[in-house]
Amino acid sequence: MTELLTTEEYKKIAEQLTPQSMSFINGGFCPSSNGETIPVINPATGELITNIAACTKEDVDFAVKSARDAFESGCWSKMHPAERKAVLLKFTRLIEQHGDELAVLECIDSGKPIVDCVTIDIPEVVNTIAWHAELIDKIYDQTAPVGSGAVAMVVREPVGVVGAVLPWNFPILMLAWKIAPSLAAGCSVVLKPAAQTSLTAIRVAELAAEAGVPAGVFNVVTGSGSVVGEAIGRHMDVDMVTFTGSTATGRRFLNYSADSNIKEVVLELGGKNPCVVLDDAEDLDTVAEQVVAAAFWNMGENCSAGSRLIVQEGIKAELLEKIIQHAKEWKTGDPLDPSNQLGALVDKGHFDKVTKYFDIAKQDGHRLIYGGESVDGCYVLPTIYDDVKNSDRLAQEEIFGPILSVITVSSFDEAMAVANDTEYGLAASVFTANAKKSLRAAQALRAGTVTVNCFGEGDISTPFGGYKQSGFGGRDNSIHAHDQFTQLKTIWLDLA
Ligand code: NAP
Ligand code: MG
Fold this sequence. Notes:
This protein has about 500 residues and is α/β, with parallel strands linked by helices. It has two domains: about 5-270 and about 470-490, Aldehyde Dehydrogenase, Chain A, domain 1, CATH 3.40.605.10; about 275-460, Aldehyde Dehydrogenase, Chain A, domain 2, CATH 3.40.309. About 40% of the residues lie in helices and about 20% in strands. It has 16 helices and 24 strands. The chain has helices at about 5-15, 55-75, 80-95, 100-110, 115-135, 170-185, 200-210, 225-235, 245-260, 285-295, 315-325, 350-365, 395, 410-420, 435-445, 480-485; strands at about 25, 30, 35-40, 50-55, 140-145, 150-160, 160-165, 190, 220, 240-245, 265-270, 275, 310, 365-370, 375, 380, 385, 405-410, 425, 425-430, 450, 465-470, 470, 485-495. It has a seven-stranded mixed beta sheet with strand order 14-17-18-13-12-20-21, sandwiched between helices. Strand 3 (about 35-40) and strand 4 (about 50-55) form a beta hairpin. Helix 1 (about 5-15) packs across helix 4, helix 3 runs antiparallel to helix 5 (about 115-135) and helix 6 (about 170-185) crosses helix 16 (about 480-485). It is globular and about 70 Å long. It binds NADP nicotinamide-adenine-dinucleotide phosphate and magnesium ion (MG). NADP nicotinamide-adenine-dinucleotide phosphate binds near residues 229, 249 and 398.
């Protein structure tokens, strides 16, 4: 377990940080070609941290050319697997050594609580990169059963130049989910972090270079989605895009691909995930704890947040009472104070979007049973509404804030129908003591991850991604993620 420092110690680290604000392209720092910048604000204090480069299409061209040249040179793509593994493992050690610095940088940039940055995000980044690095020299290709007159090999090759476009909710962790399997596979990467949360990505690129990742193999191009993101999506020399973000933007990447070079596209998108609690669920106190974590962890800025509680009427009253008790344990406040489990929302624009749902809930006649308050500094307190119908806006729209909607059902079949009545299908959980029902639910729920008697997202060894409009084209994590950064080649040798 990682040891936590005090608020004062984290504040001191924050004061001493000198975040790099330029992009990292071809092994060095680059300003934007037109000199423009974007202000980076700490959402908890409103203070300006720095101004990052607002890169241009020309900067993307330069990064893609650097990535292509590096790929073609073979300096990384053809490096011996054991050597590539050694470089990536050195990279993880550097991230660990700079763990507190990266955690504080992430915290002030995004508003996420330091306790999560230190105990979840940074260790998971290290674990993700190490897991994919360890895979490199343990996977074998295949030969096909083509008879004795020939030998047919089915080999994996790195897909080439990968564009990665990231969201702001788990900035450094989503970066790891993208770069670990793609770099392990031998690809070169051009990565655009979200404009609000680019600082850890730039620092990580610098550490990768220090670990021995060759120039041009891992580039970070900062800037806006409409300029840098679109230029990556439409680039004729990017072989694949891996994107995590909203469904609306994901849809654009499919169009960019269709309009350009039919690049591969993998999309990890939004969610409106159901937590189903059946009448026979055992240990309601633990269930309540899990429901609260599902709804409020990371301020609800979580694609797999359990934002719809679908509860069978027999246990509803008792469960809600326990949920409210547990919600009270989640302290909101200064993200640099390790006793706060909840920090600030990512920026004022998002804060305004989330708090608008307080008005929508009022208009639609939902019953506020907990919270419903916001505080200056982009803080929204955990909030629960009862008497929500699944067709209401609160139950259909991804709010991406700490707002839980309670929907009451009377039967198992109704619970499944309501849970699936959404355009999304990322994650779902079901709480029941009945083994048959738990498996029937796991089969019935149309979601990429179904957890039983807990809230969770699996781990690095399990694929993560969405059904329906929650995803497209592949999965993050696990060997499946590694495979999607490779393509298959058939090599046929005639022996006659
Ligand atoms: P977003 O608005 O879609 O932005 C994601 C990225 O796309 C940002 O880097 C953004 O750039 C860029 N972008 C915006 N407009 C673009 C355009 N026209 N062309 C190309 N790129 C463009 O999503 P977000 O608000 O950052 O992230 C929250 C969303 O991510 C939620 O829907 C959440 O569910 C989803 N998410 C999904 C997963 C998963 O694994 N399924 C994980 C985490 C988050 P700028 O914002 O910098 O301009
Ligand atoms: Mg910020």
